[in-house]
Amino acid sequence: MILRNARIWSGPGEEARPGTIAIAGDRIVAAHEAAGEEIDLGGRLVTPALIDCHTHLVHGGHRAGEWALRMAGAGYEEIARAGGGIISTVAATRAATEDELLASALPRLDRLLADGLGTVEVKSGYGLEPGTELRMLRVARRLADLRPVTVRTSYLAAHAVPPEYRGRPGDYLDAVVLPTLARAHAEGLVDAVDGFCEGIAFSVNEMERVFQAAHELGLPVKLHAEQLSHLGGAQLAARHGALSADHLEHATAADAGAMAAAGTVAVLLPGAFYALRETRVPPVAAFREHGVRMAVATDLNPGTSPLHSLLLAMNMACTLFGLTAEEAMAGATTHAAAALGLPDRGRIAPGLRADLAVWDAADPAHLIYRIGLAPLHLRIIGGRTC
Known about the structure:
The protein is α/β, with parallel strands linked by helices.
């Protein structure tokens, strides 16, 4: 396949320029290596297909009532301690069959794909018991069989302490999180291990145990860190060479330095910031100063970020956090790929995977500044149009 008459944004540090893209099989190649179908794109913008590197796409139920409480003034921790929040979704997810979880996840995935996605990360973490955690991961794997998209899974049983283990997080780790991780890994269901390091979830010491188990299985780690308070999660992630630390509203310049040294990506999640009506923004200036790569994701979940558009997340990252359009574009492509440990995508260059998005837009700023419009013309995933 040869794509002619395109305006190509190939990756960070590049401007959109006229050019041609050649594809052979599922790879981008030099022009002389491709032959076959030619597509005239009429001057449209071509970027790497977008990558949503942080979602909770598979879950049961919804939390519209919780949203109404939040609009009336209730806080995140107040709702969680009253049995709402993550635990509310746990009950609905445990009650759902695998087919029911799949049926509810597919429309959410389809909405993301309409924004030009080629890769999506999907977490467990709404089961908090072995059967449901494994069921969520199996559903995530099935999504890739039903849609032209790469799905990466993150094991997130260390998301919250379930009611049956309230006040006993160590027992929950021993009885559920660690043995279920071993089972999930044995079944080939896990690409990375995640956790929630927060006062209402797990401490640094508790997450150390989970990360150690992940390393023993040869699995990379990532972490929800410094979202509601500063507990040291970003430093923990850096010490363990985590792929990413996510949220980071309460991170510091010292955290940025540690993450830069470790190569840990900062995943910014403006949907949760917006939905929770937070006022403290992540330390973007410190991330820039230290050279920390910044990714942008939806954090799609039923409670604190019911956001089904990565394009909107990119716009919000610019409007709320001060990213430039190029930073947001890189954050949903090149740096999102790094946050998932996928060096074969997220840029346009020979040898990389031919996951591309074609847009009715002139450049990244033109693409991102519009609100509520997804000007996708064409997706090319693994060298095939879809």
